[in-house]
């Protein structure tokens, strides 16, 4: 599917039949497991990195730290390639801006789960899907998808369609998908994570999501999931909780900037190159997530906390 051709937007069919057919296909993806995902389970160490798209020494430092930090699976929070994504699956930027910098990660057989950022949407975001079809270490079955690892459920979102008005016609399909899966998976999830490129709010220089994106996140994500993990803001941040959902930001993969001059009370927001690391453990029938922000230089833990999972909850604003 081509998400970037604005000239085709007005010609896009918008009927309910199209949404339901597409939703049926997306639900089938829940059971799809790539070969290199089979080594990932709820006892794995999950890492999250974002906004890595610029080739520079900071990107190299972050990539090398990830390769030696015990990560079993890595989620990319978006903006994989700056400044404007890929023109096609043959675009050499995928090699120069992603594969080569993270070659030590790939050599260890660590799968990369992708999510799209606003820069990835600028030309041909479907290129990432085409590449993932032929590389089991790159997981990207659709612009939004869900993965289960035992009691852990991870929903990967495409938040750019809610942030950009010209992509408005793609919103209903994703809303129908998330509503359906939240109900279907509620009983099996002990710990729930939603991942999207854009945060709802920030104590840094990008304060709030756009009104239409804010509406989506507050209605469908906050109040329903244990963690919401994003990038876009080029910081590492623990922004606290709203409606029982804790928001974490991991976006310092190549161009860190935008943290507040003074640290906000009770929260954490720095522009230090690094990433987020998460491990789960079960205690007294509860799933607890221990997470830490890791500075790339020296792999020092610079912030640590934990979150007790409640799974997927119903929330009606």
Describe the structure.
By secondary structure, this protein is an alpha/beta fold. The chain is built from 8 helices and 14 strands. It has one domain: Metallo-dependent phosphatases (Purple Acid Phosphatase, chain A, domain 2, 4-Layer Sandwich). It is 23% helix and 24% strand. The strands form 2 sheets. A 7-stranded mixed β-sheet has the order 4-3-2-1-12-13-14. Strands 5-6-7-8-10-9-11 form a 7-stranded mixed β-sheet, with no helix packed on it. α1 packs across α7.
Helix content, binned percent: 10-25%
* Shape summary: globular
Q: What does the main sheet amount to?
A: 7 strands, mixed
CATH topology: Purple Acid Phosphatase, chain A, domain 2
Specify Rg, calculated over alpha carbons. 18 Å
Strand order of the largest sheet: 4-3-2-1-12-13-14
Counting structural domains, the number is 1
Count of DSSP H/I helices: 8
Number of strands: 14
CATH hierarchy: architecture:
4-Layer Sandwich
Average pLDDT: 89
Amount of beta strand: 15-25%
CATH homologous superfamily descriptor:
Metallo-dependent phosphatases
State the CATH class.
Alpha Beta
What class do helices, strands and sheet pairing give? alpha/beta
H/E element order? HEHEHHEHEEEHHEHEEEEEEE
Distance between the termini: 32 Å
Quaternary organisation of the protein chains: single chain
Low-pLDDT parts are: 1-14, 20-35
């Amino acid at each position: 599917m081509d998400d970037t051709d604005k000239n085709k937007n007005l010609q896009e069919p918008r009927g309910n039949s199209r949404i339901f057919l597409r939703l049926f296909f997306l639900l089938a993806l829940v059971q799809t497991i790539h070969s290199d995902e089979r080594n990932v389970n709820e006892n794995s160490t999950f890492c999250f990195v974002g906004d890595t798209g610029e080739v520079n020494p900071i990107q190299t430092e972050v990539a090398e730290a990830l390769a030696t930090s015990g990560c079993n699976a890595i989620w990319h929070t978006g903006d994989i390639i700056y400044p404007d994504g890929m023109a096609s699956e043959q675009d050499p930027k995928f090699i120069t801006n992603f594969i080569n910098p993270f070659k030590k990660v790939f050599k260890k057989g660590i799968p990369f789960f992708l999510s799209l950022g606003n820069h990835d949407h600028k030309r041909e975001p479907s290129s990432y899907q085409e590449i993932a079809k032929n590389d089991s270490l790159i997981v990207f079955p659709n612009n939004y998808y869900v993965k289960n690892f035992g009691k852990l459920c991870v929903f990967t979102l495409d938040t750019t369609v809610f942030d950009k008005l010209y992509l408005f016609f793609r919103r209903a399909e994703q809303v129908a998908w998330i509503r359906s899966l939240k109900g279907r998976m509620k009983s099996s999830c002990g710990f729930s994570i939603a991942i999207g490129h854009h945060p709802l709010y920030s104590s840094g220089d990008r304060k709030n999501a756009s009104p239409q994106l804010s509406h989506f996140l507050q209605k469908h994500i906050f109040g329903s999931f244990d963690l919401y993990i994003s990038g876009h803001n080029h910081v590492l941040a623990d922004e606290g909780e709203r409606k029982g959902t804790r928001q974490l930001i991991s976006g310092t993969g190549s161009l860190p900037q935008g943290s507040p001059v003074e640290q906000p009370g009770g929260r954490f927001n720095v522009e230090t190159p690094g990433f987020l690391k998460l491990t789960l453990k079960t205690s007294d029938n509860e799933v607890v997530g221990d997470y830490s922000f890791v500075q790339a230089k020296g792999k020092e833990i610079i912030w640590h906390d934990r979150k007790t999972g409640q799974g997927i909850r119903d929330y009606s604003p």
